[in-house]
Amino acid sequence: MKRFFLVLFGLSFLLFNSCKRSTHQVEATKQLNAPDFSLPLVKGSGFMTLSENIGKVIILDFWATWCPPCRMEIPGFIELYNKYKDSGLIVIGIIVGDNMDIVKKFVLENNINYPVVMGNSKVVQDYGGITGIPTTFIIDRKGNIVQKFIGYRPKEVFENEIKKLLSEET
Question: For 46-120, where are the alpha helices, taking DSSP H only?
Answer without folding.
Answer: 68-84, 100-109
